[in-house]
Amino acid sequence: MSINHFPTTIAAAHAVADRIAERLKAKPSIVLGLATGATMEPVYERLVALHRAGEISFARVTSFNLDEYVGLPPEDPRSYRSTMDSQLFDLVDIDKARTFVPDGLAADTSAFASRYEAMMREAGGIDLQLLGIGRNGHIGFNEPGADFAARTRVVDLEASTLEANSAFFDGKLPPTKAMTMGIGTILESREIIVLATGATKREAVRAALTGPIGPECPATALRRHANVTWWLDAESGAGVAGESLAAE
Ligand code: GLP
After folding, report:
1. Residues 194/222, Cβ–Cβ less than 8 Å
2. Active site residue 108
3. Whose CA is closest to 195, among 235, 147, 148?
4. CB 3.0 to 4.6 Å from 63: which of 32, 44, 121, 243, for a disulfide?
5. What residue spans define the domains of the chain?
6. E-assigned strands of the chain?
7. Ligand 1 centroid vs 35 CA: distance in angstroms?
């Protein structure tokens, strides 16, 4: 595991986008695991800018998103499908038929979840997974207590997650359930990039990197993966600056 520290949020996000672009250039048919959330907005902005500048093409990319709210139709602007369309997919040359997001309206959620896992396998597995982190240490929507071996499934969201994400719902609470890749699914990616920015993530980052490994902090599972890089700004990384793990 390595940790990259950056002075500002934008520098960290742009560096992550540049790393994704580098991987995409090296393997144009890359399978990406994608995340949503405020943290990722500047990453996608930079990827769109690199595409517009003729630097990168998504024409042969396949993508799988981590999660989706249960009960939100894809056309709802607050769904993660809509978010991905408006922040990235509709702005680059990706084949939308090869962009996959869990179906928040699936009638049989466990059948859908198994199919989603099978589609990832059939695509050859995820080459590069982009991850954010919740204030409570969640990854995807795997809340504290989640089994490290869990696969894609429907989960209940914690009150603190609902409150944090109410910012995207005009201050009202989001749906209380989501479908998410499991921690076991995430750990199968060949490479993982975690981007965490801002003071609200400092405690989760510190716990993830230096606390006891266990389900109370789902992100500690990442310490069991051989190829994880953390990308932090000054605020999120303050708690781990100077740690022996720190700075590449
Ligand atoms: C959300 C998403 C996660 C995301 C995290 C942080 O609820 N399910 O995939 O990484 O929480 O979100 P944000 O970047 O908005 O802080």
Report:
1. yes
2. no
3. 235
4. 32
5. 2-233
6. 2-5, 31-34, 62-65, 67-69, 99-100, 128-131, 153-156, 177-180, 191-196, 228-232
7. 7
The active-site residue, picked from 68, 127, 143, 158, is 143
* Nearest by Cα to 99 from 71, 80, 73: 80
The whole-model pTM stands at 0.96
Which helix (H) or strand (E) covers residue 121, if one does?
Answer: helix 109-122
**pLDDT tens for residues 57-68?**
999 999 999 999
The model's pLDDT over 129-188, given as tens digits with 9 standing for 90+, comes to 999 999 999 999 999 999 999 999 999 999 999 999 999 999 999 999 999 999 999 999
The verdict on whether 67 is a catalytic residue reads: yes
- Domain 2-233: give its CATH code: 3.40.50.1360
Atom of ligand 1 nearest to the CA of 39: 14
State the catalytic residue, choosing from 67, 85, 103, 158: 67
| Residue type at 59 in one-letter notation | A
